[in-house]
Design brief:
Blueprint (H helix, E strand, L loop, with lengths): L1 H11 L5 E2 L4 E2 L1 H10 L12 H6 L2 H18 L20
Antiparallel strand pairs: 1-2
Organism: Araneus ventricosus
Protein name: HTH CENPB-type domain-containing protein
Length: 94
């Protein structure tokens, strides 16, 4: 994670005290950066076989085609469109 932070800072010209030899940011800098931008590191969850097999070109194409077709048919105004994600939804049964 500290190497990724270093690369990000290097590419975007972010000033900071970095270890150029090891090409990594310090723990304090990374902690402050994550706190400032409300970022957190999450552990990946297992993916079911059915879900993995369902992730193919046909399904992905339909996934993007359906909302587009719906918006063009119904002519929803911009303020009626919402972006939602599934960051708090567990896909693995406990």
């Amino acid at each position: 994670m500290m190497k990724v932070a270093f690369e990000y800072a290097d590419v975007n010209g972010v000033a900071g005290r970095f270890n150029n030899e090891r090409k990594s940011a310090g723990k304090d800098w990374l902690k402050s950066f994550c706190k400032r931008y409300s970022l957190s590191v999450r552990n990946p969850e297992q993916c079911s076989v059915a879900r993995a097999m369902g992730f193919n070109e046909v399904q992905v194409t339909w996934f993007y085609y359906n909302p587009k077709r719906c918006c063009l048919e119904k002519k929803f105004p911009a303020h009626r469109k919402f972006n939602m994600d599934e960051t708090v939804i567990s896909t693995v049964p406990q």
